[in-house]
Write a structure and sequence with these properties.
Number of strands: 4
Number of helices: 14
Largest sheet: 2 strands, antiparallel
Strand content: under 5%
Strand order of the largest sheet: 1-4
Structural class: mainly alpha
Radius of gyration: 22 Å
Order of helices and strands: HHHHHHEEEHHHHEHHHH
Length: 337
C-alpha cells in the first residue's frame, strides 16, 4: 500500500478556485437586492453605501497613513451644504453639485491641513475635533445662508440628464442604484490610490515615517495629500446624503457621524478595502435596522460593539482574508503573512 505522504505535492487533488463564481454571485446579489427587500431594508443599505464614501477617506488616513482624524464629519457636512446651496440658489443638477461638493471639501482641507499636520498624535486629533465644532457652529449661526437649525429643505432627488432624456431617483429602490454606483466608483478610485506608488509611500509613512523620510519620501506632502483626498471622499458622501434625504442641517456635523465612520473603519478592519465595505453594511445598516425598536436600539447597538471589541479586536478584515483564501482554494499557514 502506498503511503499518501509519498505522493508528490503537484499530483494531489487541488481545491477548486471559487473566487470568480462567488464574485459574480455577489455582484448579482448587489444588483438584485432591491427586488426582494422591503423599502426600509433598501433605505438602510442606501445609508450604508453613503457612509462608505467618508469611511473610505478615513481609512486612507487611519489605515494607510496612520493618522486619526475626526474632521470627516465636518467635510461630510460641508459637502452636504455645498450641494444644497447650489441646488437651492442655482438649480444645478446632481452631478454638478456632487463635483462642487468634492472640490469645496478638498479646497477647505488644504488651509486646515497645512497647520494641523504640523501637530502630532493627540494634538492633531484635538485640532480636527475643534474644526468639527467650528463648522457646526457656523452652520447653526450663519442663518442668512444656512437657515440655522431649520436647515435647507426641499432639495431635489438625484437627477441625471443627457440630451433630452432625464432620470430621477425618486424612490428608495432607484436611490439604491445611484448609491451603489457611486460607492463602486469611490471604491475603485480608492483601490487605484492605495495600489499606486503613492499608496505604497503612504504605507511606508504609516510604518515608519522617519525611515520613509530618510529614503527621500516627502512625508509631509503625502500626509497633506491623503488629508485632502479623504476630505473629497467625505464631501461626495455629504452631497449624496443631502440629495437623498432632501435636507441639509447642522446635525450632519455632529460627533455621532464621526463615531459611525470610526466604527466602520475600525470594526471592518483599518487598512482593508473589503473590511470597510463589510463594516459599512454591517454597522450602518444594523443601526438603521434597529430603529424599529427605538427603546432597545442603542442598547443592542452597544452590545454589538462590545462583542466586536472582545471577539474581533482587529476587525473583520483578517477573517475576510482567510475566508477569501479558502474560497480560492488556498490554505494560509500559521505565521505566514
Amino acid at each position: 500500500m502506498t503511503d499518501s505522504s509519498s505522493i508528490p505535492a503537484d499530483t494531489r487533488p487541488q481545491t477548486r478556485d471559487l473566487r470568480t463564481p462567488v464574485s459574480i454571485l455577489l455582484f448579482l446579489l448587489a444588483l438584485c437586492s432591491p427586488l426582494f427587500l422591503g423599502t426600509y431594508a433598501v433605505h438602510a443599505l442606501v445609508i450604508a453605501m453613503i457612509f462608505l464614501l467618508p469611511a473610505h477617506g478615513l481609512n486612507l488616513l487611519v489605515g494607510y497613513t496612520g493618522m486619526l482624524s475626526l474632521a470627516q464629519a465636518a467635510f461630510f457636512g460641508i459637502g452636504a451644504y455645498c450641494a444644497a446651496l447650489m441646488a437651492t440658489h442655482f438649480d444645478t443638477s446632481f452631478p454638478v453639485n456632487l463635483l462642487a461638493a468634492v472640490v469645496l471639501a478638498m479646497a477647505v482641507a488644504v488651509p486646515l491641513g497645512i497647520p494641523a499636520l504640523q501637530l502630532r498624535a493627540t494634538s492633531f486629533v484635538m485640532c480636527t475635533l475643534g474644526f468639527v465644532i467650528i463648522t457646526q457652529a457656523i452652520a447653526k449661526n450663519w442663518i442668512s445662508v444656512t437657515r440655522g437649525d431649520m436647515g435647507l429643505s426641499g432639495l431635489p432627488k438625484p437627477t441625471f440628464s443627457l440630451g433630452g432624456l432625464s432620470w430621477t431617483a425618486s424612490t428608495a429602490q432607484q436611490s439604491y442604484y445611484v448609491a451603489l454606483g457611486l460607492a463602486a466608483l469611490a471604491t475603485f478610485v480608492f483601490w487605484l490610490i492605495v495600489r499606486s506608488p503613492a499608496g505604497r509611500n503612504l504605507i511606508a509613512i504609516r510604518e515608519n515615517e522617519t525611515l520613509a523620510e530618510s529614503l527621500g519620501v516627502p512625508t509631509w506632502r503625502y500626509r497633506l495629500a491623503a488629508f485632502v483626498l479623504a476630505a473629497g471622499f467625505a464631501g461626495a458622501g455629504g452631497a449624496l446624503y443631502a440629495h437623498y434625504i432632501s435636507v441639509a442641517s447642522p446635525l450632519m456635523f455632529q460627533t455621532l457621524y464621526t463615531t459611525t465612520m470610526l466604527i466602520i473603519v475600525l470594526g471592518g478592519g483599518s487598512g482593508s478595502i473589503s473590511g470597510v465595505v463589510i463594516g459599512s453594511i454591517l454597522f450602518v445598516a444594523l443601526s438603521e435596522g434597529l430603529r424599529i425598536a427605538p427603546e432597545l436600539r442603542m442598547i443592542a447597538y452597544g452590545a454589538c460593539l462590545l462583542l466586536l471589541v472582545f471577539r474581533f479586536p482587529q476587525g473583520f478584515a483578517p477573517y475576510l482574508s482567510k475566508l477569501w483564501d479558502r474560497i480560492g482554494g488556498q490554505t494560509r499557514k500559521e505565521g505566514s503573512a
